[in-house]
Amino acid sequence: MPYLAADDRYASMEYRRTGRSGVLLPVVSLGLWHNFGDTSPLENQRAVLRRAIDRGVVHIDLANNYGPPAGSAEANFGTLFAQDFRPYRDELFIATKAGYDMWPGPYGEWGSRKYLLSSLDQSLGRMGLDYVDVFYSHRFDPDTPLEETMGALDSAVRQGKALYAGISNYPAEAHRRATEILRELGTPLLIHQAAYSILQRDPEDGVLDAVGDTGTALIAYSPLAQGQLTDRYLDGVPADSRMALGHFLKRDTLTERKLAFLHALNKLAGERGQTLAQMALTWVLRDPRVVSVLIGASSVTQLDQNLAALEAGPLTADELAEVDRLSAEAGVRIP
Question: Is the pTM above the cut of 0.70?
Fold first, then answer.
């Protein structure tokens, strides 16, 4: 049946302003990193995307190398966009990125103008789009002049292939300089994407301050630390889990100390009437400089469970202090 978006799709979602821009993003956005490649059934992907949009999750985040294999997440999204979502294009905020290894040879990764603009053309082709809403430099390139990388983002916007420019995984000072360069070019930086969770607090070591000072915003990926901040690993490592596969998440990261920490966090979440995952999302959203958290979802049920985080109130000062106390005991670095 043709997809018709729910009439009440904007009724329960909260939207935050992205820095000093006119862009409002849902506080929970959908990332298509792990569950939208060719290893996942297309009909399951369709169900998750339909449910997300029906719940007001109108920001969809991709990258050129998402899959597996690389490129397949964009291609699968393109198939579903053509079949279901094209009538809603102006209601969607679609992002893609380039920076990591994508094709052989010297022009297939990092931050050169050659790579970034070629990759964007390929991404638009895979998704069947005329433009993306934001195009990111996916990682800081220490060997390419920042002026060249930011100039490529500026060109993408001026060519009408992207509406906004973003950066991801940049150090704080590079964020500040990138903002200056883009402002001088007339294409303001919109957003910075970085890993941020209770287990990974590096953005507190300068990046969040840089975001606040420059009038941009942070969007947090891996707010659940690739599933560690869920009930998935509370009883060990399931055979079918990401940690068991050992690609991005290694089994030896689940130490006895960390497991005790996760159980303590889970207890605190239960006292709040939340799951561990829901509390972890609430925790990241405590900072107004964070415009949204990016979640992955392998099922409609999982998506709905994560969105239920929005039903609870913010963490109290005592609860935040308890998270910090437990984190310090567990050896989590708190900048």
Answer: yes
